[in-house]
Amino acid sequence: MRLLERMRKDWFMVGIVLAIAGAKLEPSIGVNGGPLKPEITVSYIAVATIFFNSGLSLKTELLNAIL
Questions:
Q1: Buried-exposed string 40-66: b where 16+ CB fall within 10 A, e elsewhere
Q2: Reported pTM
């Protein structure tokens, strides 16, 4: 399997490796009070995004049964 095909297949793992490498090279971005504002993004935006994505995965038939 060629490298590009392998990277397309394992895109999530490649993204994780790049995120870890970026955090190792420039850790000041994710520090409290830094540009990413983790005190806000982790506690509010990340949790809201997780619940929103969970809601999107519900089948409409299930929602009609609940309502």
A1: eeeeeeeeeeeeeeeeeeeeeeeeeee
A2: 0.57
**Structural tokens at position 43:** 């506690």
Tokens 């490796």, located at residue? 17
Task: Give the Cα separation of 4 and 38 in Å (integer).
Answer: 33
The tokens for 32 are 């409290």
Q: How confident is the model at residue 58 (pLDDT cuts 50, 70, 90)?
A: confident
Q: How far from 10 is each of 18, 20, 50, 56, CA to CA, in Å?
A: 13, 16, 22, 24
